Amino acid sequence: MTLLAVERIKLFTTRSPWWCTLIALGVTVGFAALMAGTAEAEVPMTVSASQFGYGFGMVVVMVMAALAVTTEYRFSTIRATFQAIPNRTAALVAKTVVVSLLAGVIGLAAAFGSWGIATAMSPGDLAINTAFEWRAVAGVGLVYAIAAVIAVSVGILVRHSAGAISLLLIYTNLVENLITLIPTIGPKIHQWLPFNLAHHFLTGNPDPTGRGDQYGPGLSDATVGPWPALAIFAGFGLVMLAISLVVANRRDA
């Protein structure tokens, strides 16, 4: 508990978490307002469509998570941390837990904030009734939390803010989509990529209202069920964290 308290204090005494939280909330809720404001009778607003901007907020949260680690390497405060806590694994796991919990809270706030503003702006009924709708909204918190674990792991491995952020942005926005261009095997590989599986967890069942994909989060091509998709995504995050911990213990701070 002491390690968690220390990491919480270190995290919230820097500006980046506050700015990233505001930006993530602003982007996701802003997209929900945009979707609700442009909804028409032929294309009604839905609960799923209110989460159109969750991916943009997730990228911001991952930047925050990476900075939580790389900033310490940049200013060499990580050396003081490892001197005070010789067990590097415990120190880095505590940091990961704190950052992941914050990311999950941001995800829940962003998701329910997006749903709330869409409900206020839309004349239709956007009540959350089905398991799919609950997963599409509340599931954002789980996805953000796991994405933060991946981002922290990348930060531990790379140690440089620009490099870690560049890798995260390039992978989440380009690499997974570009893999589908590989002839024959590309689409098959894409079905099992981590962020595609996370998207499948949120959009795994077709929108029951029949709203077109172009008016909300597009459907994933993953073939597993939504919850197994989340389990694989979480497993990828844990593997990344384990690799980063092994590397951190073997090299100099």
TrEMBL record:
Transmembrane segments: 18-39, 51-71, 92-117, 137-158, 165-186, 227-248
Domain of life (superkingdom): Bacteria
Protein's UniProt keywords contain Transmembrane helix: yes
Keyword Lyase appears in the UniProt entry: no
Keywords: Membrane, Transmembrane, Transmembrane helix
Designated name of the protein: ABC-2 type transport system permease protein
Source species of the chain: Actinokineospora alba
